[in-house]
Amino acid sequence: MLKDIFMGLSQNQLLNSAAKKYGLKMGAQSVVAGTNIPEVIKSIKELNAQGISCTVDNLGEFVFKEEEATAAKEQILQVIEAIHENQVDAHISLKPTQVGLDIDYTFCLNNVREIVDKASQYQMFINIDMEDFKHLELTFNLLDDLSLEYDNVGTVIQAYFHNALEYVERYKNYRIRLVKGAYKESDEIAYQDKKDIDANYIKLIEWHLLNGKFTSIATHDHRIINHVKEFVKRNDISKDKYEFQMLYGFRKELQLKLASEGYNFCTYVPFGNDWYGYFMRRLAERPQNLNLVAKQVFNKKTNTIIGVAAGAFLLGRLTTTKDKKKKRK
User: Fold this and answer.
1) Is 1 marked within a binding site?
2) What is the DSSP track for 237-272?
3) 102 is known as an active-site residue
4) Boundaries of each Proline dehydrogenase domain copy (predicted)?
5) Are residues 18 and 135 both part of a single domain?
6) Residue 297 clears pLDDT 80, i.e. is over it
7) When comparing pLDDT for 174 and 300, which is higher?
8) Do residue 151 and residue 210 come from a single domain?
9) Are residues 54 and 102 part of one domain?
């Protein structure tokens, strides 16, 4: 139920617009590394100083107009230039829908190609983030098309999909980020139980560590991290073959600990005013994240806004359920 609430909130365009108005005053500064490029570069420098590399996400949701997608592309190009000019250790993560996937495939491909081309000039990696299932094959198509011209591009594979291992095997020669999955999907295509997802996640990690090019293990779960530590030691897997990843603002002490132990560590660094959908999905993905950020993020204003929004969402669900029952009668 809690996951459904936050997933419903993440897709509410009205609340997304309201969140932009409040900006990071709502407390999201703990999990979003600024609203502009100078601020995110400052955050990257601070992480680099602690032995942590970064992947930067220029946040954006609900892009259905070409001019908005083009503006997002231009912003990402500016971030690439800023990373190069400041000589910081960072690369780019981007969502295809932000640069036009819901508008037109060719339009989106051209936008992503321009980004990948610019990054390739600076030997910079571009990670194509994976979104919900309806965009999955289109995103793989982007990767396939771009790989004909460039070798600095990879993507994400979500462990909650039943056939995730097929995707891992298909893209074993790519740098791949493995995640559990953050979108609400049907039980026909995705595991729903946490134990099943965790088991599949570990299976994917082990397979790709043994057979893949480079594995980014994106999790806050210390049990899985400890399992990976033992697995790589037991199988004599070089640290150059993998990295751990976590989100900016989450489990900071563990991030620093892993980096200090000599593991490659990368922090996923989101920035921008369009933070709302991203933040709600993080809470939906792992309700424990509420505990991780509660003291840092939630103030009275945040609690009120999210509480009212959650109440409205639940009321909508209850009303819909009642209407369905009436129709059945």
Assistant:
1) no
2) --GGGEEEEEETTSSHHHHHHHHHTT--EEEEEEES
3) no
4) 41-291
5) no
6) no
7) 174
8) yes
9) yes
- Domain containing 313 equals 1-27+282-319
Asked about 177 being catalytic, the answer comes back as yes
325 is in an annotated binding site: no
Q: How many beta carbons lie within 10 A of that of residue 291, not counting itself? A: 9
257 is in an annotated binding site: no
Would you say 60 is a known binding-site residue? no
- Alpha-carbon distance of 20 to 9, in angstroms, equals 14
Residues 232 and 151 in one domain: yes
Structure token pair of residue 283: 């809470």
Tell me, yes or no, whether 197 and 306 share the same domain.
no
The residue type of 238 is: S
To the nearest whole percent, how much of the chain has pLDDT over 90?
Answer: 69
The mean pLDDT of 233-243, rounded to a whole number, is 97
4 and 138, same domain (yes or no): no
Q: pLDDT tens across 91-120, in order?
A: 999 999 999 999 999 999 999 999 999 999
Q: Are 138 and 124 in contact (CB under 8 A)?
A: no
pLDDT for residue 278 is more than 50: yes
Q: How many domains does the chain have?
A: 2
- What's 106's domain CATH number? 3.20.20.220
